[in-house]
Amino acid sequence: MRASENGERRTSAGLLIPATAMPAPKRLSWGDVTLVGPEVRVAKAGDRVLFLPSAGLEVELDGEELVLLRERDVQAVSSQPAARDRTPGQYL
User: Fold this and answer.
1) Domain assignment of residue 56, yes or no
2) Is residue 85 part of a domain?
Protein backbone atom coordinates (compact mmCIF):
# COMPACT_ATOMS: atom_id res chain seq x y z
CA MET A 1 0.00 0.00 0.00
CA ARG A 2 1.10 3.53 -0.69
CA ALA A 3 0.32 6.31 1.76
CA SER A 4 -0.26 9.86 0.54
CA GLU A 5 0.33 13.04 2.51
CA ASN A 6 -3.37 13.33 3.45
CA GLY A 7 -3.39 9.87 5.06
CA GLU A 8 -5.28 8.05 2.33
CA ARG A 9 -3.88 4.71 1.16
CA ARG A 10 -4.23 2.86 -2.12
CA THR A 11 -3.91 -0.92 -2.34
CA SER A 12 -2.00 -2.69 -5.10
CA ALA A 13 -5.37 -3.50 -6.71
CA GLY A 14 -6.21 0.22 -6.84
CA LEU A 15 -8.73 0.40 -3.96
CA LEU A 16 -8.70 3.72 -2.11
CA ILE A 17 -8.73 3.44 1.70
CA PRO A 18 -9.64 6.80 3.32
CA ALA A 19 -7.70 8.17 6.29
CA THR A 20 -10.79 7.81 8.48
CA ALA A 21 -10.57 4.02 8.08
CA MET A 22 -7.19 3.88 9.79
CA PRO A 23 -7.15 1.76 12.96
CA ALA A 24 -6.93 3.56 16.26
CA PRO A 25 -3.45 3.71 17.81
CA LYS A 26 -2.75 0.95 20.33
CA ARG A 27 -0.14 2.81 22.38
CA LEU A 28 -1.04 3.30 26.04
CA SER A 29 -0.39 6.57 27.90
CA TRP A 30 0.32 7.47 31.52
CA GLY A 31 -1.67 10.23 33.19
CA ASP A 32 -1.99 11.77 36.65
CA VAL A 33 -5.32 11.39 38.45
CA THR A 34 -6.76 14.81 39.28
CA LEU A 35 -10.33 14.06 40.36
CA VAL A 36 -12.06 10.81 41.31
CA GLY A 37 -15.76 10.01 41.55
CA PRO A 38 -17.36 8.75 44.79
CA GLU A 39 -17.63 5.07 43.75
CA VAL A 40 -14.12 4.59 42.29
CA ARG A 41 -12.23 1.71 43.92
CA VAL A 42 -9.08 1.44 41.80
CA ALA A 43 -7.40 4.86 41.85
CA LYS A 44 -7.25 7.95 44.02
CA ALA A 45 -6.18 11.54 43.39
CA GLY A 46 -2.40 11.73 42.92
CA ASP A 47 -2.01 8.25 41.40
CA ARG A 48 -0.66 7.67 37.89
CA VAL A 49 -2.79 5.51 35.62
CA LEU A 50 -2.09 3.72 32.35
CA PHE A 51 -4.87 4.01 29.76
CA LEU A 52 -5.62 3.88 26.05
CA PRO A 53 -6.05 7.52 24.89
CA SER A 54 -8.88 6.65 22.51
CA ALA A 55 -10.91 5.28 25.46
CA GLY A 56 -11.24 8.65 27.18
CA LEU A 57 -13.26 11.78 26.52
CA GLU A 58 -11.51 15.15 26.48
CA VAL A 59 -13.22 17.77 28.65
CA GLU A 60 -12.38 21.30 29.72
CA LEU A 61 -12.84 22.07 33.41
CA ASP A 62 -11.93 25.49 34.83
CA GLY A 63 -9.84 26.23 31.73
CA GLU A 64 -7.83 23.01 32.05
CA GLU A 65 -7.94 20.19 29.47
CA LEU A 66 -8.66 16.84 31.17
CA VAL A 67 -9.36 13.29 30.00
CA LEU A 68 -12.45 11.63 31.46
CA LEU A 69 -12.06 7.85 31.89
CA ARG A 70 -14.24 5.03 33.09
CA GLU A 71 -12.76 2.83 35.76
CA ARG A 72 -12.76 -0.17 33.44
CA ASP A 73 -10.57 1.74 30.93
CA VAL A 74 -7.70 2.00 33.43
CA GLN A 75 -5.10 -0.66 32.61
CA ALA A 76 -2.72 -0.12 35.56
CA VAL A 77 -2.30 2.14 38.59
CA SER A 78 1.02 3.38 39.97
CA SER A 79 0.79 5.10 43.32
CA GLN A 80 3.70 6.90 44.96
CA PRO A 81 5.19 4.74 47.74
CA ALA A 82 5.93 6.31 51.10
CA ALA A 83 9.59 7.24 51.63
CA ARG A 84 9.99 4.60 54.34
CA ASP A 85 8.69 1.88 51.98
CA ARG A 86 11.47 2.40 49.44
CA THR A 87 14.11 -0.25 49.89
CA PRO A 88 16.86 -1.06 47.41
CA GLY A 89 16.28 -4.07 45.20
CA GLN A 90 12.47 -3.95 45.04
CA TYR A 91 11.02 -3.93 41.54
CA LEU A 92 7.50 -4.00 40.15
Assistant:
1) yes
2) no
For residues 74 and 36, what is the distance between their CA atoms, to the nearest angstrom? 13
Closest CA to 72 of 48, 49, 38: 49
Q: Give residue 21's identity as a one-letter amino acid code.
A: A
pLDDT digits (tens, 9 = 90+) for 23-67: 666 789 999 999 899 998 989 999 999 999 888 899 998 998 999
Bridge-partner residues for 65, per DSSP? 60
Structural domains of the chain, count: 1
Nearest Cα residue to 52 out of 79, 34, 25, 33: 25
Answer whether residue 42 is part of any domain: yes
Residue 18, classed as helix, strand or coil, is: coil
Domain of 34? 24-80
